[in-house]
Amino acid sequence: MQELSLGEIESRFADMIWEKEPIKTSDLLKLCADAFGWKRSTTYTVLKRLEKKGLFENQDGTVVSLLSREAFYSKQSEQYVEQSFGGSLPAFLAAFTSGKKLSDKEIQELKQIIEDASK
Fold first, then answer.
1. I want to staple 92 with a disulfide (CB 3.0 to 4.6 A). Which of 22, 79, 85, 117 is the partner?
2. Which residues contact 54 (CB under 8 A, 6 or more apart)?
3. Residue 40 near residue 76, CB atoms below 8 Å
4. If we measure between CA atoms, which residue out of 17, 8, 72 comes closest to residue 43?
5. The domain containing residue 55 runs over which residues?
6. CATH number at residue 44
7. 44-96, pLDDT tens digit by residue?
8. What's the predicted TM-score (pTM) here?
């Protein structure tokens, strides 16, 4: 799969599809015209870009996701940690929390995530 990054408009467009899927292309065209002021060709161009990234597929006039929103953001996060911190989650967390005090609730949530991941 290609690098998983989306621009602001691509992200809003993808979120729209994830919220409504499966969605007929005719309905998607109307939504994009209303939300972004796009013409038919612009909607299809952006959809094709996201299809090439492996996120969506147009199956006989209905757009479906090949990757869920959660899976996309998970893979994007993994990619960021790999590229920016050599894959080290502890290095990422140290950088993320260096200028921020965590609440007791956040600390407990992180402990739970670590506990769940170690099973």
1. 85
2. 1, 2, 66, 67
3. no
4. 17
5. 8-69
6. 1.10.10
7. 999 999 999 999 999 999 999 999 999 999 999 999 999 999 999 899 988 98
8. 0.77
